[in-house]
Amino acid sequence: MASDNLPAKPSSKGDIDAFLGRAARLPSLAQTKGRLIFAIDATMSRQPTWAKATEIQSDMFAVAQSIGGLAVQLVYFRGHEFRASDWTPSATVLANRMRDVTCRSGFTQLCRVLAHAASEAGRTKVGALVYVGDAFEENPDAAAAEAARLALLGVPAFMFHEGDDPHAGAVFRDIARLTKGIYARFDAGAAKQLRELLMAAAIYATGGAVALREHARKTGGELLRIADQMDRK
Hints:
Helix content is 52%, strand content 16%. It has nine helices and six strands. Helix 2 (47-56) runs antiparallel to helix 4 (91-99) and helix 6 (140-152) packs parallel to helix 7. It is globular and about 40 Å long. The termini are far apart.
């Protein structure tokens, strides 16, 4: 039987070079040009969309990388829980964090998301807030007040609304209007549409309206519609 006290086998020069090579290819926060807060309602009804967002979020990083790189902070709530991750420039790290989360029943905490985004923007430049949700169970006036704080810090909210709840839609639209952001509705199962919405937010957070317009001209679709909305702000 091998002893647990045996010295570890020393790494070869090839192993060290390979490790350093992998580390050099990893993005760093210092190299990123944009920051985006990615907030998702993780209450029980959100599980299917959470899984879709986990699968496609790497596209946000890929498109932003061509502009200058993106750092993302994951924010979610479920039950009485509210969580915000560290900033990461890695699509893999973000995906792993999202896969560790399971949705639970509970009430929405959008006001807290907005307050958190304002707090982060007070410490460092945040290019955009993305929020994905399907319901709103809080005080609309409180949400509007938090959105106004966010607007003063220059952070547009990209409010992506799944489903057709009219009350949630009205509040989400108001938050987008106050922050000079975007309101967009998508249907359950619309993975392609959600992908385009998230890519639009990532491009804007990294390169602003000019980058979004330039990319939208090449691709069309949902990106072009969102670019048109941002141009009218």
